[in-house]
Amino acid sequence: MLNSAELVPIGEAAQRAKISVKRARHYEGIGLLPRVDRDDGGTRLFSQADIHTLRFIGRARLLGFPLRSIRKL
């Protein structure tokens, strides 16, 4: 479990959220997830709150919610 200050790279965040890296990038790109921090090399770094949001989006998609409805939630 992450503490609130720990940041993890996109691959680990996607794995913890049970979604693909491609989906994580997509959700950030369309604004469902606020823009995440990046390290000096440009690697996306996700907080526990970001992972929680990714997990929520992924579960909502599995339940059949369209992205526009998830955005409202």
Q: Please describe the biggest sheet, giving its number of strands, its sense, and whether it closes into a barrel.
A: 3 strands, antiparallel
Distance between the termini: 25 Å
Global geometry:
globular
Strand order of the largest sheet: 1-3-2
Give the amount of beta strand, in percent.
5-15%
Secondary-structure element series: EHHEEHH
Count of strand segments: 3
What average pLDDT do the residues reach?
92
**Can you give the helix content as a percent range?**
40-55%
Cα-atom Rg, whole angstroms? 12 Å
By secondary-structure content and strand pairing, the structural class works out as mainly alpha
Low-confidence stretches: none
Number of helices: 4
Q: Would you spell out the secondary-structure blueprint of this structure?
A:
Elements: E1 8-9, H1 10-17, H2 21-29, E2 37-38, E3 44-46, H3 48-62, H4 67-72
Antiparallel strand pairs: 1-3, 2-3
Helix pairs in contact: 1-2, 1-3
